């Protein structure tokens, strides 16, 4: 019995690669990358994605909506592609990823999951192009929350649920990547957090797989709790789950065009404020709250900085809304806390159009686009620990100016930070703002106005969601943008989600030369 064509093709590639590697070894040259483990893992994840499509299909069927057929067709196509990749690239024994394979896997997962995750959007009755569908899926899986879809309030339940599931799956994916892959790849100072996932002396569960499993459990429990509380506060069970999934993922996809402005119940806003805040915190601390005789979640320096950012800017905007815009203290506090938490955690929910608050609030919200939540959370942007390291570097520099012969060190959580980590953090921040500027320039070349281009670049790179201005502001969508801008923003969302260098390294000639 002959092998399927994809298996035969993979066997031919393997034989060719082995011969090429033998010649490379004899010449002392770099070996070719073995793509089989990368393709195999991608295939498994596509099978998982296909299984996830069955959920909105069932919901649409229950609500008697014809879009259930769209999810079945998309799921079968995704399943067949996943099975072909798994069967054709099954490695011998347990696959062990090299560093180059890990870089390639991380990027290819987001590209393939987005490419197949876009199918229900483009095949459904939404009548949108594949470009827009790809953008919507990328926005979901990167937990950005920017949308091109209009008319969410009358949208089929399956589509709304699929958007929430993309947020939710993207959120758990980025947490697992943050604790299992990025520390090994030493991206942007993330090697500092190898101790969070594998240091046995810290009494955290020692194996990375155990840590990831614990985080998934916490993620599921918090999602269910948020769903329950939102239901009790007045949302329907469906609305409650969709918003809970997006809140914990800091994704920002809502079931209404008005986002959370569609609900005036203060309890709903406060519940989501709390769970967005939890989504932006370090999830490892939830499974190891007690460390070295202290409550780690309260004494962790990154958590303290995170809370200080949230409280400070909430108070500033509360006072502004109360004193300048004549809001009641309770409404000013509620909407300020909600929207500050949403932007800092890069969720992207909005309870009101804050672009109408005045000049100072707009500047503050634009600045908050770059902050981000904690490392090991579902949030995007620069991240709190990098800002902490940068401020510590500035403090040490000032001390050296005053005391040229003094010896000063930079520490994080009472541990000295190596020069390699400091260099990685500095390199990441420089590249982050350079990327932001380059994409802002490219977006203006597509015909976008200055405010839309600069805030669009910032919100895409930071995985935040809304920008500023009449088009992509809190009350707008990305639907009017040209296709070129949509593809640029899609790529920028992936760049930001995967910490820049994970993707950019693939464009290096030395990467492919080994």
UniProtKB/TrEMBL annotation:
It comes from the Bacteria. K(+) binds at residues 143-144, 251, 346-347, 463-464. The chain crosses the membrane at residues 39-63, 70-89, 101-121, 164-185, 211-233, 267-291, 303-323, 363-385, 420-443, 485-507. One of its GO terms (cellular component) is plasma membrane. Belongs to the TrkH potassium transport family. Low-affinity potassium transport system. Interacts with Trk system potassium uptake protein TrkA. This is Trk system potassium uptake protein.
């Amino acid at each position: 019995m002959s092998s399927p064509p994809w298996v035969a093709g993979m066997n031919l590639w393997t034989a060719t690669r082995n011969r090429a590697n033998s010649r490379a070894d004899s010449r002392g040259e770099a070996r070719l990358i073995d793509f089989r483990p990368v393709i195999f893992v991608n295939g498994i994840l596509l099978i998982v994605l296909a299984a996830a499509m069955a959920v909105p299909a069932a919901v649409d069927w229950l609500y008697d909506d014809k879009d259930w057929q769209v999810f079945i067709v998309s799921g079968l196509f995704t399943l067949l592609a996943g099975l072909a990749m798994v069967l054709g690239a099954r490695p011998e024994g347990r696959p062990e990823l090299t560093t180059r394979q890990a870089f390639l896997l991380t990027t290819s997962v987001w590209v393939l999951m987005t490419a197949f995750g876009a199918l229900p959007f483009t095949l459904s009755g939404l009548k949108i192009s594949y470009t827009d569908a790809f953008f919507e899926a990328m926005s979901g899986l990167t937990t950005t929350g920017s949308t091109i879809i209009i008319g969410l309030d009358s949208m089929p339940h399956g589509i709304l649920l699929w958007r929430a599931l993309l947020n939710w799956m993207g959120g758990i994916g980025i947490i697992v990547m943050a604790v299992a892959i990025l520390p090994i790849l030493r991206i942007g100072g993330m090697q500092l957090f190898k101790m969070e996932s594998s240091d046995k002396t810290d009494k955290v569960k020692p194996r990375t797989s155990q840590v990831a499993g614990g985080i998934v459990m916490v993620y599921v429990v918090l999602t269910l709790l948020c769903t329950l509380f939102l239901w009790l506060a007045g949302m329907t069970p469906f609305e409650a789950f969709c918003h809970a999934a997006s809140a914990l993922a800091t994704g920002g996809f809502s079931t209404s065009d008005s986002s959370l402005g569609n609900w005036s119940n203060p309890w709903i806003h406060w519940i989501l404020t709390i769970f967005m805040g939890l989504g932006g915190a370090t999830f490892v601390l939830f499974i190891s709250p007690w460390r070295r005789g202290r409550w780690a979640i309260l004494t962790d320096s990154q958590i303290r900085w995170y809370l200080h950012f949230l409280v400070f800017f909430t108070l500033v905007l509360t006072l502004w809304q109360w004193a300048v815009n004549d809001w009641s203290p309770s409404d000013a506090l509620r909407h300020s806390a909600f929207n500050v938490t949403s932007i800092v955690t890069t969720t992207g929910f909005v309870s009101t159009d804050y672009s109408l608050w005045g000049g100072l609030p707009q500047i503050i919200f634009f600045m908050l686009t770059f902050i981000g939540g904690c490392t090991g959370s579902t949030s995007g942007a620069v991240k709190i620990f990098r800002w902490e390291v940068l401020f510590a570097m500035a403090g040490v520099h000032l001390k050296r100016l005053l005391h040229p012969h003094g010896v000063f060190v930079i520490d994080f959580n009472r541990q000295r930070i190596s020069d390699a980590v400091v260099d990685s953090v500095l390199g990441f921040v420089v590249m982050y703002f350079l990327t932001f500027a380059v994409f802002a320039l490219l977006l203006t070349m597509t015909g976008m106005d200055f405010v839309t281009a600069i805030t669009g670049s910032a919100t895409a790179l930071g995985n935040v969601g809304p920008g500023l201005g009449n088009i992509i502001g809190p009350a707008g969508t990305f639907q009017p943008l040209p296709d070129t801008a949509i593809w640029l923003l899609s790529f920028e969302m992936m760049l930001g989600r995967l910490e820049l260098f994970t993707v950019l390294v693939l464009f290096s000639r030395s990467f492919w030369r080994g």
